[in-house]
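ARCHIVE CARD
Drawer: 12
Card no.: 0347
Subject: one protein chain, sequence and derived structure
Cross-reference: see card 0346
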Amino acid sequence: MAALAEKRGCLMGRAKMLPWQLGEITATLDDATGRWLARARYRDGSGKSVAIKRQGRTKFGAKQAVRDAVTDAEARWRAAKKDNVLTVARLAAEWLEVRRPATVVINPSTQAGTTPTAGLRMQSWLQYEQKLNTHVIPVLGDTAVLALTTPMCQKVIHGLYKIEAGTGFRTASLTKQVLQQLLDFAIQQGYRTDNPVRSISKIPRKRAKPKTMTPSMVQRVHSAVANCQPESGVGGSSPTSRLADIVNLLSATGMRVGEVLALRWEDIDLLSTPPTVTVSGTLVEGRYFYRQDLRKAGEEDLIYPLTSWASGMLLRRSANAEATATGAVFGTRNGTFYRPSNFRTDLRKALKAGLISEAITPHTFRRTVASELAAALDDQAASIQLGHSSPEVTRRSYIARPSTIPDFSAGLGNLAPKNQEKHDLREV
C-alpha cells in the first residue's frame, strides 16, 4: 500500500506547502553521541523552501526543537515586517501591477493609440481594477488571503445581482472572473494551494428575450433622427445629418457603435461592386479615448458589403468631406472622432423629441439586424454578419424569435386520429 501511495504521489504531484508550513519531520539516532537528529523542510514567508535540522536527547525532543525553530523563525519574520499579513487588498495591488499592460501612447492628431500587445489590453485592465475596487476590496480588502473561504466569496458575488429586478448578472459574472484570476495568482505565488472562488455556485443567467425593433419602429427611429438633424453634411454647427447617417449604417450592417464611429475614409470603398466598408478598429472610451487598430477581443477585420441606401449615404458624405488628420467618416466639427457616449446622448434626445419612449440603444440595432437576417435566411447568416465565432452566441443574445408560430399544420396530417370526422370551420 505504501508503494502504491508513493506511486500515486509521483503521478499526481505533491501539493505545494503554504508559507510557514512544516513538512514531515524525520529523526535518526546518532550512535556516536547518543543524541537524536531531526530533519525537515518548511516554506518561509517569501515562499522559499528551507531545510532545517535540530538535535535532542529524545526523538520527541529533537522533533519539538524543529517545530520551535520554525515558530521562532516565523515570529522573527513577521516582527520584521510592518504589515505582516497578506490581505486581499495587498494581493490585488500586487496582481494588478503584474498584469498592468504597457501604457497606451496616443497620437494627438490622429487619435490613434499604440497597437495592443498580445497580453492584457488597457481597457480590460481598467475593468479589472474597477471591479476589484468597487465590489471586492470594500468587503474583503482587509481579509487575510489565507483566511478567504468559498462562503465569503460567494456572499460577495451573489450579492451583486437581483433576480426579481433582473439586474446585475453581468456585473456578478465579471467580478467572479476577476476574483478567480486573483486567487489563481495567489496559488501561483505560493500564498495558497486552492482557489475558493472555483467552488462558488453558478450565477443565474438572465433569461430575457433580446430586445429588437419591428420594421415600423425602425422607420420611426429613422424619422426621429432625421427630424432632429435634417441637413446634410459631415459635422459642423448643428443641425447636421451625422446622427441620422450613423443610424443608417447601424441598420445596414449591425456593426458595434464603436466600430462605426472608428471608421475612416480609407476604410470605405465606394468603387467596388458592391461598395464595401472594412471594420479594422474600434474606439476605446474611458480613462483614455483613442482609436484602437483592432476590433473587440482581437477579432479579425470584417469587410461588409453595403446596401444601396448605406452606400448612397456615404457617397453623399464623401462629396462634402474635408480632409482631417483622423480621416473620421463621422467626425466632429474639429475633425476628431465622435465619442460613443456623446452619440448615445444625442440618440436619446432625438428619440425623446420624436415621442419614442422605448429604450433603444446602439446595440438594439445590432440585435435587430441579427433577428431580421435569421428570419429571412438563417441563424448562420446572422452569426456571420455580426462576426460571431458561432451561431450559438448569436442565438442566445441577439436573435428574437417570433411569438406566433408559422402555420405548419399541413405537415401534421399523418398524426390525426384515423376515425375522427373532419370539420371545416368555414362551414360551421
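Annotation on reverse: Residues 1-13, 230-237 have pLDDT under 50 and may be disordered. The two ends are 84 Å apart (CA to CA).
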